[in-house]
């Protein structure tokens, strides 16, 4: 497996800050519109962060050296 | 909700209960080690669980039966505010990804089994070790009791009321956990989690179509909250900080508990844990959808004695009895996995950080395993007695405090992985302030985990656990600075 550079790896870890910002600043999403499939924004925004966070952690996972 | 016995539902339930009971006993032979008479084998499954076993085990014991009952119940009562469980179980995973592999490696390299072992190894302080271990045990006990609350709700919906069915189920669990150790819940978790996935997917796919779609579900809930005069499907302006701080504090506390740490220590490698940080959010999606059952309860116009009945009553009302039986079996079995892992985690702490530390330092490997096995029995019987003889509210209040208590072990457990700056006395004073200060604030607020803070003219409510953690860390830093300046020669 090709190893990303050290700076690339650090940058990928910074992605992990995004879920904290996106979810802990409530004014970003405490609203009704735009609704999606009947879900108010408040609900689908937070549910959408589940796959998004999974993807961000996966990117970080790929950047970490396998050291087991 | 009816509490008549339905023969079809009961038969389905009994079939699955017997299935997992057989699996629980067979588990002693699964991935058979040379001997089970070693705490690494009985209490950590030989530290050999790969990605999928870890996924099912941690998923099965982090998302508990109580969660399945209580999160929709809270959403049913208060609305959007009850949804804090969703951001909580999302932001926990970047933390798990970054911290837990480091902790796992430290534990594997030095043969640590518990958080108390890690702290003792790092600081060489029996006092700090005891604080961390005792906090773990007392925070876990009420959590086990609450699994029984979840189980009671499922049994009640099947028409099995009274103390006998609950006691039988729990005693069977205690016996196979005694014999097979962590392998029992690990094996049962496969069945339990697959059942829960089927139940929730069926519920979120089929129930809204019977209730006029999701738009109608949200509209009915909003109308119900308006009629009741409390609750809302969006947060009020004064709830923002409480919502965010509950999510953050709970996320930091989640993997300090003995049962979640046991799942981490039992995995086969740091890479296994990182992969699980990617994969475990699947359970969070499930939890988020499950929480919506609270709103579906309003849309279905359920009349409930207790909010905890919202999930069982929905299944009874909207599904054929065989599927309702399947759903109740999933919830009841869902209580067994976390209860088993929690009792094992508590037993490991007692054995390593109390028995071995104070009673018998020369205990053999086999002796350790034996002490842990007996302790796991005692812990489960204790939880059962609490539920049978004390008001449920007592367990609820204690579990709430448990979250605040366990969060206070974070500095001692985690900081040492990254820095050698802190000294044991400083961390112990910090723990003391956080633990007792947090407890006082909760008591002072009438057993509510939220505290009103006034800052520059504006006031807001904050999760007490997070406030206590901030005080804990600040005091630990101050005392540490004082210690270092007082004794520069030893620095």
Break the fold down into its secondary structure elements and pairings.
The complex is a heterodimer of chains A (about 70) and B (about 500).
Chain A: H1 6-14, H2 18-24, H3 41-63
Helix pairs in contact in A: 1-3, 2-3
Chain B: H1 7-26, H2 39-42, H3 51-62, H4 65-78, H5 85-110, H6 115-123, H7 126-157, H8 164-180, H9 183-210, H10 213-228, H11 240-254, H12 258-265, H13 270-279, H14 281-291, H15 293-299, H16 310-318, H17 321-359, H18 365-389, H19 392-407, H20 410-418, H21 424-444, E1 450-455, E2 458-463, H22 464-486
Antiparallel strand pairs in B: 1-2
When the domains of chain B are counted, the total is 1
What structural category do the secondary elements of chain A indicate?
Answer: mainly alpha
- Most extensive interface between two protein chains, with residue counts: A-B, 36 and 40 residues
Number of domains of chain A: 1
CATH superfamily of chain B: Sodium/glucose cotransporter
- Extended strand count of chain A: 0
Oligomer: heterodimer
Cα distance spanning the termini of chain B: 66 Å
* Principal-axis shape of chain A: elongated
Strand content of chain B: under 5%
Number of strands of chain B: 2
Mean pLDDT of chain B: 89
- Which spans of chain B have pLDDT < 50 for at least 5 consecutive residues? none
Q: Sketch the topology of chain B as an H/E string, one letter per element.
A: HHHHHHHHHHHHHHHHHHHHHEEH
Bin the helical content of chain A: 55-70%
Label the overall shape of chain B: globular
Radius of gyration of chain A: 16 Å
* Main sheet summary of chain A: none
Poorly predicted regions of chain A are none
Mean pLDDT of chain A: 85
């Amino acid at each position: 497996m090709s190893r990303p550079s050290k700076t690339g790896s650090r940058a990928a870890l910074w992605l992990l800050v995004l879920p904290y910002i996106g979810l802990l600043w409530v004014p970003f999403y405490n609203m009704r519109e735009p609704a999606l499939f009947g879900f108010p924004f408040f609900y689908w925004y937070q549910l959408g962060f589940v796959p998004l966070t999974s993807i961000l952690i996966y990117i970080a996972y790929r950047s970490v050296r396998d050291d087991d | 909700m009816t509490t008549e016995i339905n023969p079809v539902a009961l038969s389905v339930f009994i079939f699955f209960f017997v299935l997992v009971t057989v699996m629980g006993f067979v588990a002693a032979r699964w991935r058979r080690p040379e001997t089970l008479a070693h705490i690494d084998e009985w209490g950590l499954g030989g530290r050999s669980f790969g990605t999928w076993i870890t996924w099912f085990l941690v998923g099965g014991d982090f998302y508990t039966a109580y969660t399945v009952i209580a999160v929709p119940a809270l959403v049913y009562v208060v609305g959007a505010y009850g949804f804090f469980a969703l951001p909580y179980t999302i932001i926990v995973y970047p933390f798990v990804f970054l911290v837990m592999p480091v902790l796992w490696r430290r534990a594997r390299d030095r043969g640590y089994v518990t958080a108390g072992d890690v702290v003792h190894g790092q600081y060489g302080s029996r006092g700090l070790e005891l604080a961390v271990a005792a906090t773990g045990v007392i925070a876990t006990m009420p959590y086990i009791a609450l699994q029984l609350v979840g189980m009671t709700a499922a049994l009640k919906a099947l028409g099995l009321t009274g103390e006998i069915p609950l006691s039988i189920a729990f005693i069977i669990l205690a016996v196979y956990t005694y014999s097979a150790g962590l392998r029992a819940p690990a094996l049962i978790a496969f069945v339990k989690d697959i059942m829960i996935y089927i139940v929730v997917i069926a519920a979120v796919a089929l129930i809204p179509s019977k209730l006029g779609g999701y738009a109608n579900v949200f509209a009915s809930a909003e109308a119900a909250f308006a009629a009741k005069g409390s609750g809302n499907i969006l947060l009020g302006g004064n709830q923002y900080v409480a919502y965010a701080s509950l999510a953050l504090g709970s996320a930091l506390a989640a993997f300090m508990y003995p049962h979640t740490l046991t799942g981490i220590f039992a995995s086969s490698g740091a890479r296994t844990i990182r992969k699980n940080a990617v994969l475990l959010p699947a359970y969070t999606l499930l939890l988020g959808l499950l929480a919506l059952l609270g709103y579906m309860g309003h849309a279905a116009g359920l009349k409930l004695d207790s909010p905890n009945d919202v999930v069982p009553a929905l299944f009874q009302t909207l599904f054929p009895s065989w599927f309702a039986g399947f759903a109740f079996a999933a919830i009841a079995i869902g209580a067994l996995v976390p209860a088993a892992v929690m009792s094992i985690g508590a037993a490991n702490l007692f054995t390593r950080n109390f028995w071995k530390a104070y009673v018998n330092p020369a205990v053999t490997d086999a002796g350790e395993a034996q002490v842990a096995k007996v302790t796991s029995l005692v812990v489960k019987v204790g939880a059962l007695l609490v539920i049978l003889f004390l008001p449920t509210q007592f367990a609820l209040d204690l579990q709430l405090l448990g979250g605040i208590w366990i969060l206070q072990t974070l500095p001692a457990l985690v900081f040492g992985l990254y820095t050698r700056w802190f000294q044991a006395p400083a961390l112990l004073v910090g723990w003391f302030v956080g633990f007792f200060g947090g407890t006082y604030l909760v008591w002072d607020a009438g057993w509510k985990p939220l505290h009103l803070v006034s800052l520059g003219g504006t006031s807001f409510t904050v999760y007490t656990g997070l406030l206590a953690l901030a005080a804990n860390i600040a005091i630990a830093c101050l005392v540490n600075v004082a210690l270092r300046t007082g004794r520069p020669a030893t620095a």
